[in-house]
Structures are given as structure tokens and as C-alpha cells.
Input
Amino acid sequence: MKSHLYLLQLDWYLSQYKFALLCLVTAFVLTLITIPPIISLIKKYKLYDVPNARKEHSTPIPTMGGIAIVAGMVISLFLWFPFSNAMAQVAFFFSIAVLLALGIMDDLRDLSAKYKFIVQFALAVLICLSGIRITSFDGLFGIYDIPVSLQYTITILAIVGITNAFNLIDGIDGLAGGIGFMSLITLGIFLTLSGDVNTALIAFALAGGILAFLYFNLNPARIFMGDTGSLILGFVTAVLCIRLMQVNTLVEEPVLPHAAVFVMGIVMIPVFDTIRVFGVRLWNGKSPFSADKTHIHHLLTNQGYSHAFAARLICLLHCIILMEVYWLRNIRQEWVFLVLTGLMILTTAALKNLRYFSLFNGRKELNKQTTNH
Output
């Protein structure tokens, strides 16, 4: 059965998404029924996420919701994913197991950033060795095929960077989950359209787990995903982005003429925000890992806006970016990159000063009411 999405101008065959839907629904149901017992156990043993200088919540909240998300994803894939002895599959699922253990330890003991970076670096090297690498920029800035040594360097930096970017943006209720869900669904759809149906199942399975988690995480949150969830969310998103770039260099008629700039759009908000925050901290003579409240969501919450409003507004921006990078797919990549960067700079400046716009609107409305009287 063929369907046509006029808004996105996509032709797709619904039969291709049979197992994708099964993965998503299975992971959703499993995560949904797993989270309540986890919340009970965390409360029983008092394994809370305690407020500190980095965090927005004022009372201890149960954490490690990522355990339920990963459980839903893994069991769903065990039921529907066509496993093989392929090196890439072994490396990927081994990395998920290691990151899950790392996230649990970090949520329990607050591990040092140095230790987490070493583990993430090692896993990124393993993924590269398995064959999942950025091999081409597809003409972005005039760069096509990349030397093998540079492939490893860029891929490792991308995986570690994106993993930590998602970890750092997980600062308010529903934000990381909302951005992650939209990114995974987008990756799943375009991996399927590009012919890599099996890898797409991973995206849909994790998306199902995230969707169920959001039911408990939307403001006011009853549980956080913790590093247990955010590290895996960022890692999977990074690997799938790289895989999408690979697939589009192999097919004769790629769905995405310029996959490099498209995947940039998928991770633009967390990555741009991390680079901006680290840059500001270094400019001010601070460590890039110092605790403060300068991330994109803090720009809104620092002005008194609620978690719910901040998360919805940033997720709306993410949705706009995802549609924009596809609509502009036939335009020169450098221009699209500049548009994305300019949009993020302008948006960040606008969000930082949103209270002034609100104040202006409030005065304008008051003047209107006074004139009417």
C-alpha cells in the first residue's frame, strides 16, 4: 500500500513499516508497564535525583527511568529485529549494555566526567572498527570522500559529542525525551526510505520507549531518565545519524541529496547549545564543565517560564528545523548550514530576551485597555 505525504513530499510504502510499528508499539507497552515498579523501587531505596547547581527541580525526584526505556527497546528488538553475527550489530548492542551500566553507576555515584569520556571514547572506537563511520561529507564545503584516518577522528568526535550533548540538554521535564522522540522517528523513516529497514527498527524501538517514558516525564515529572537514559539516547541518535549518511552514499538515487546537512539538523539544538555554553564558559575563564544555568532551557526558566512552556517551545523549534532541512534539501548545502546556524543564533538571542517581548506586549495590551475606557 502506497501513501503520499503532501506536506513533506514523501512517497512511502506502508508495508515497509509493519515491523517498525510492531517495534514501536511493543517498546511503548513494555516501557509503560515497567516504569511504575521502577519508581516504587527507587522510592523504597531512596535513589533520588537530588537538586544541585545544575538542576532545575527543587525536590528529590526518582531517576534511572532509562532502565525501563532500554528494557522496552531491547525486548522489542529481541522479538522483531533480524539479528545476525554482523560485527556492527555486536558492537552496537555491546555498547548499549556498557552505556547502560555506566549510566546506572553515574546516577548512583555521580562519576567523574573524565571516566565517562574514556568509556564513551572506547565505545566510539569500537563502532568505527565495526564499519559504521562518516566516510563522506557529500560535497559539504567541497569535501567528498574522507581519508580513513580522518574518518575515525571525525566519527569518534561526532559520537562522543552528540552523546554528551543529549546528556547535557536533559535539564527540564520532557525536553530530551521530546527532542529524542522526534529525532528517532525522523531517522527511522529516512533509514527505511533509504533501504536500511533493519537499522530503522532500532530507531522505532527506542522511540516507542521514549514515548512511554514521556507519559511519566512531562511536567510535573514523576521520574527522570537520568544518565542511564540520556547517554543511550544520544549514543543511538549519533550512530543512526552516521548510518543514514553511509546509506545515502551507497544508493544510486538517495532520498536525501545531502545527508550530511540533514543529520546536522537532527542534532542541531543539543549540539549547538553545548558548543555555545562551552564557548561562553571558556570565554569567561571557567571550565567548560563548570556548573551553571546557561543552557537553552535555562534561558527560559531563568526568566520565570515554566518547564512545560520551555520544553514545548524548544521542541517546536526542533520540529521546524527538521522540516526545514528536508524542504531545503535541493539547495546548496553551505546555504542550508548557514540558515540553520543563523536560526539558532537568532533563536537563542530571542529566548534569552523573551521577557522583554512579553513586557512590551503586556504594556501594549494595558495601553489598549486604557484607551478603550
